[in-house]
Amino acid sequence: MTTGRWRPWVLWATTLVLVSAGLLLLRARLDKAHVALVFLLVVLGGSATGGRALGLLLAGAAFLLFNWFFLEPYGTFVIANPLDWLVLVAFLIVSGVAAQLLHRFRQQADAARRSAAEVDRFATLGAETLNVARADEALSAIADVIRSTLRLSAARIHTDRVRSSTGLPSMMAWVMEHGTMAIVSRDGTTRVTVDDLPRDNLAEARSVYLPLKVRGRTVGVLELTVDAAVSLEAAERRFLAALSYYAALAVERARLAAAADHAEALREAGRMKDVLLASVSHDLRTPLTTIKALAHEMARQDERAQVIEEEADRLNRLVADLLDLSGIQGGALPLAIEVNAVDELVGALVQQVSPTLAGREIEVDLENGGTLLAGRFDFVHTLRILGNLVDNAKKYAPANTPITISARRQGGEIELAVADRGPGVPDVEREQIFEPFYRAPGAPPDVGGTGLGLSIARRLAVVQQGSLGYAARPGGGSVFSLRLPAVTLPTVTS
Amino acid sequence: MSSNPPSGTVLVIDDEPQIRRVVRNAFTSSAARVIEAATGAEGIDRAAAEKPDLVILDLGLPDVLGLDVCREIRSWSAVPILVLSARHSDQEKVALLDAGADDYVTKPFSTEELQARARALLRRSHRSGSEPPKIAIGELVFDRDARSVTRAGQAIHLTPIEWDLLQELITNAGRTLTHQHLFTRVWRGRQFGDAQQYLRVYVAHLRRKIEPDSVRPRYIFTEPGVGYRFASAADLAASPPDRR
Fold first, then answer.
1. What is the DSSP code string of A340-369?
2. Which of B19, B207, B208, B215 should we substitute to test contact with A (largest number of A Cβ atoms within 10 Å)?
3. Could you please report the per-residue DSSP string of A283-335?
4. Is the dihedral of CA A361, A366, A370, A373 positive or negative?
5. Residues of CATH 3.30.450.40 domain(s) within chain A?
6. Does A285 sit within 8 Å of B215, measured CB to CB?
7. Topology of the domain comprising A136-259
8. Calpha distance A143→A136 (Å, rounded)
9. Whole-Å CA distances, B1 to A289, A313, B5, B239
10. C-alpha span between A144 and A141 (Å, rounded)
11. What is the pLDDT of residue A175?
12. What gap in Å lies between CA A12 and CA A8, rounded to an integer?
């Protein structure tokens, strides 16, 4: 190390001595200008390789040698010819200025090289930040570079994902929330500034919390722990600004990547579910079709086959209930909210339930005074709700009592009610009956159904901005009321 | 059950032998000849070779999408296509009807339901090309030339849109027409604004005029989530007016 630093000095001192000796041998044939030029070359060479100090030293030495050996009278520092002073002073000035200029160029070249290296380092870090497979690795790499470059005892990057799992210490949470920097001094006081970077040197600081921001949003906190006093010059500040921005980008990128992965996983799960539902419904319903059709044929000879057919129908309802429930719960239920006529809804309901009534009477009461009632709802889901309500009434009300379906407008809503003369529901159970698989305690085991009908009905009502409630019926029995948004019809008859 | 058993050649395209058997059984008592195909490709070949009067197509085929079979057959033949669907989604049925299928039956179906739908479509298949100017269905008499409708001899006044709706439904009696189909046919060339969302309301008004009881329709049936179907003669035979 030391020998390396002194080598140019030794080398150029030797060169100066040898050159002086060579010139001395030829002194008789040389002009003063020759000597001056040769010495100038040595000074320039020394400045170029050894720096300004060597250059100035060589210039001084050459000045003395020039005077001693090559200006008459030789062997003295006396100068006979006053014009030789001019030569000598000119030589000194030229060699000094040349050494100084060379030194400045070298400094500028060094600075340019350093900033090129800095730019290169930033670019590399930036690329690594954006390309690294795992965001955690990028963050720890950046933190490490900051720590070693600024010679800190620790640098850590915290993201808001950390907060949710372990809970950030309060200072970090505060910085995360407010997006301003906080500096904790050695004496324990905390200073909060609106700047994004420390303005002064971190002489008094023990730890610094820098907000990491992307587009004005704080996505993380850079925590710097300072042991020895750290000086933050312009270059370090620049470096810190750039790296904390890279860190913020890395955090943001990790968040976006996680969100994209999550969305992709959700899409995939949704697709798998659709495929599964389609295949379950196909695979279960195809054998049910065969069972039902063959049982139906056999029922002409054997009554027991009729039971098989009914049970096949019940299994089919169970499949439909389970598919519906999973569709509602998974949020995968397609909704077609449209303007629909209540006439048509009740008509489709009567048409749907008629084959299963076995002689029971259905009363329809449309209180509309000749005008058409209309609402904004999903026709299929609403039909399913009412179908479930009628099924429920059939199960619990005596076979010789009618089921009444009524509809009326109430303010901004259409109220559709299914009423029966069954035993009704005790007060305590009036909400429980809408729970999946709830069965009335006294219900006969062969009551049929799946225990899902009312819970499906209520969920289907809610998903289309409606409601479904229970009330005791005056004179005995139950009334289930479905409320849906009403539509006031414009004149559309022409 | 039926006074008018289905006749003609029925092609069943279904990969499940049990379902083919159910369909075959449904036609044993009739004059119809049932031929079978186990794959979509075979079905298309047989439909081309044997020129059936009705195609019964299952959607769950292993080799091709039911929708594609439907489009393929429809591209060169007007044979009625009845779809067997086990799917949960009405959107699929709508897509099939829009692709040229005439009607559908949802699994598990009853033999009667299959027979009734098949009969209506076979009757359409056998009918000669041009539409008769005067159609009597139940108590309704629809006179295309006079632009008049009577029920049990009483004249019914219809608005132009109601007339066009009824004409489209009657012309396609026994077929399920999707909401989109009806809207396109009836509102073609009309200023419509919000009409599409009020299609169901127009149908409700029409029902009030032609049905004896609008909540127990005899003529215009609602196919929930899909569209409307005008009663075929078979439907009317199965539900006499006094049934209420």
1. EEHHHHHHHHHHHHGGG-TT--EEEEE--T
2. B215
3. HHHHHHHHHHHHHHHHTTT-THHHHHHHHHHHHHHHHHHHHHHHHHHTT----
4. negative
5. 136-259
6. no
7. Beta-Lactamase (3.30.450)
8. 10
9. 20, 22, 9, 12
10. 5
11. 84
12. 6
CA nearest B11: which of B39, B38, B34? B34
The shortest CB-CB distance from A285 to any of B25, B108, B216 is to B108
- Do A285 and B86 make contact, defined as CB atoms within 8 angstroms? yes
A449 confidence band (pLDDT: 50, 70, 90): low
- Which residue in B has a C-alpha nearest to residue A323's C-alpha? B88
Let me know if B43 is exposed, middle or buried by CB neighbors in 10 A (0-12, 13-18, 19+).
Answer: buried
Cβ neighbour number for residue B63 with a 10 Å cutoff: 13
Chain A residue whose CA is closest to B59: A282
Q: What is the gyration radius of the CA atoms in chain A, in angstroms?
A: 47
Tokens in use for A422? 């069954």
- Quote the tokens at residue B63: 């080799």
Q: What residues does CATH 3.30.565.10 cover in chain A?
A: 337-487
Give the one of B107, B214, B216 whose C-beta lies nearest to A289's C-beta: B107
Domains and CATH numbers, chain B: 7-126 (3.40.50.2300), 134-243 (1.10.10.10)
Pairing of strands A217-225, A154-159: antiparallel
Can you say whether the dihedral through the CA atoms of A53, A57, A63, A69 is positive or negative?
A: negative
What is the DSSP pairing of strand B134-137 with strand B140-143? antiparallel
Tally of residues, chain B: 244
pLDDT tens for A98-118 read: 888 888 888 898 888 888 887
For B139, the 3-state DSSP assignment is: coil
The reply to whether omega before A444 is within 30° of 0 (cis) is: no
DSSP codes joined into one string, B183-196: HHHHSTTS--TTGG
Q: Do residues A385 and A361 lie in contact, with contact meaning Cβ atoms separated by under 8 Å?
A: no
Residue from A125, A374, A345 nearest A241 by CA: A125
Q: What is the pLDDT of residue A493?
A: 46
Residue A352 and residue A383 in contact, taking contact as beta carbons nearer than 8 Å: yes
Shortest alpha-carbon distance between residue B213 and chain A (Å) = 9
Q: Please give the residue of chain A at the shortest CA–CA distance from B58.
A: A286
Q: Where are the alpha helices (DSSP H) in A132-215?
A: 135-150, 160-165, 170-178
Which is the CATH superfamily of the domain at A337-487?
Histidine kinase-like ATPase, C-terminal domain (3.30.565.10)
Q: What is the pLDDT of residues A271-293, one digit of tens each?
A: 777 677 767 777 788 888 889 88
The A residues from 362 to 391 touching B (CB cutoff 8 Å) are: 364, 366, 372, 374, 379-380, 383
Residues B8 and B240 sit within 8 Å (Cβ to Cβ): no
Distance from CA of B125 to the nearest CA of A (A): 26
Q: Is A222 left (phi over 0), alpha (psi -120 to 50) or beta?
A: beta
Closest CA to B97 of B40, B168, B181: B181
Instruction: Tell which residue, B111, B113, A340, has the closest CA to residue B103.
Output: B113
Max mean pLDDT among A158-167, A442-451, B126-135 falls in B126-135
Q: Which residues contact A57 (CB under 8 A, 6 or more apart)?
A: A9, A46
| Amino acid code (one letter) for B123 | R
The nearest CA of chain A is from the CA of B59 a distance in Å of 9
User: Does pLDDT of B244 surpass 50?
Assistant: no
Two tokens, residue A301: 């000879």
Q: What is the mean pLDDT of residues B12-36?
A: 88
Supply the Cα-derived Rg of chain B in whole angstroms: 18
The pLDDT mean for chain A works out to 83
Q: At a CB cut-off of 8 Å and minimum separation 6, what does A179 contact?
A: A211, A213, A216, A217, A218
